[in-house]
Amino acid sequence: MLELKPVLAQQSMVSPTHYPVMVIGGAEDKVNGCAILNAFFNSAGAKLATIGVIPCASQEPSVVGDRYYQIFKGMGAQQVQILDIRQPKECDEERWLNVLSTCTGVFLTGGDQLRLRDLIGSSKFMAAIEQRIAIGDLVLAGTSAGAAIIGEKMISGGSSGDSPSQSLVDLTTGLSIFPDLLVDQHFHNRNRMARLMSAIAAHPDKLGVGIDEDTCAAFEDDSTFEVIGKGTITIIDPGKLTHTNYLSSSQSAPLSLHNLTVHILSQGDRYNYRQRLVLPSPVMPRY
Q1: Known catalytic residue at 144
Q2: Is the pLDDT of residue 107 over 50?
Q3: I want to staple 103 with a disulfide (CB 3.0 to 4.6 A). Which of 52, 78, 88, 89 is the partner?
Q4: How far apart are CA 137 and CA 135, in angstroms?
Q5: Which of 186, 198, 220, 226 is catalytic?
Q6: Is 241 left (phi over 0), alpha (psi -120 to 50) or beta?
Q7: How high does pLDDT run on average in the chain?
Q8: Is pLDDT above 80 for 268?
């Protein structure tokens, strides 16, 4: 399990300014306040940042890479590198490892999470990212497909639906950055509550995390995240689950899940995923 080095001994009472890992539900604001992208930019070093953009999940990596290049350069990043990796074997090449070594932040774009995993998973490149996150030397953010790969188990596809069922979700292995989590993105925007519940029925040892668009789980250390953005994060906790018929049901039959715990978190809320506990909101200063 990835252990993150605690960051910033002195933190704001309202919100920390440095997040080692940021998991974004997709469609983050790129035009107006850009709250999530600015939080990543500042975490990576602000105007001293060298940001590496990995657009390989997209079918149009050049177009997507250029868009984020313009955004981060427009914010004032010292340098923005596009790591346009097209083949899995490239992830073990010194040229990309050397570029990665100069980065203070890495941003995984949206697209196809299977493609992203197959390109960078089980590589020297990904191992280097994990090692540097663990020692507090690199900030990682992933949006949409870049968020889906965070857990040991990954939702690779499926459909929206009113009732959980086995047929509603396709599951495979992710990158295990946070092995305990099973993440779904574009969550309420694409009616994916039943899909995430179906995934949790298959893997009740995981914690379901459904992230809306323009919303981010911004991890502060090895166990706590804060919600940033306009939407919500839905937590599906099967820790007290007493029954599911997952193993005995047919593919299309509705699933039973008894005694699930569900939390809906919004801007500023904080959650400890190891203790599975909603944390008290910080006390706002009085003037």
Answers
A1: yes
A2: yes
A3: 52
A4: 6
A5: 186
A6: beta
A7: 93
A8: yes
Tokens representing residue 12 in the block: 């704001």
Check whether 56 has a pLDDT greater than 60.
yes
Q: Which of 28, 152, 213, 226 is an active site residue?
A: 213
The token duo for 172 is: 């495979």
3-state secondary structure of 260: coil
> Backbone phi, then psi, for 140, in 5-degree steps?
-115, 130
Question: Cα(224)–Cα(268) distance, rounded to whole angstroms?
Answer: 12
Integer angstrom CA distances of residue 78 from 23, 35, 81: 23, 19, 10
Q: Which of 144, 156, 165, 198 is catalytic?
A: 144
- Alpha carbon separation from 36 to 25, 81, 135, 227 (Å, rounded): 11, 20, 23, 10
Among 198, 217, 212, smallest CA distance to 159 is for 198
| Catalytic (active site) residue 186 | yes
* Amino acid identity, position 81: Q
Does this model's pTM top 0.85? My answer is yes
Residue where the block lists tokens 């390989």? 56
pLDDT at 287 over 70: no
Percentage of residues in the chain having pLDDT higher than 90: 89
Distance CA 262, CA 207 (A): 10
3-state secondary structure of 35: helix
Among this protein's residues, is 18 annotated catalytic? no
- Across-strand partners of 139? 105
Angle at 217 between CA 83 and CA 190, to 5 degrees: 90
- pLDDT tens column, 109-134: 999 999 999 999 999 999 999 999 99
Q: At what angle do helices 94-102 and 124-134 cross, to 10 degrees?
A: 20
Measured CA to CA, the distance from residue 13 to residue 282 in angstroms comes to: 6
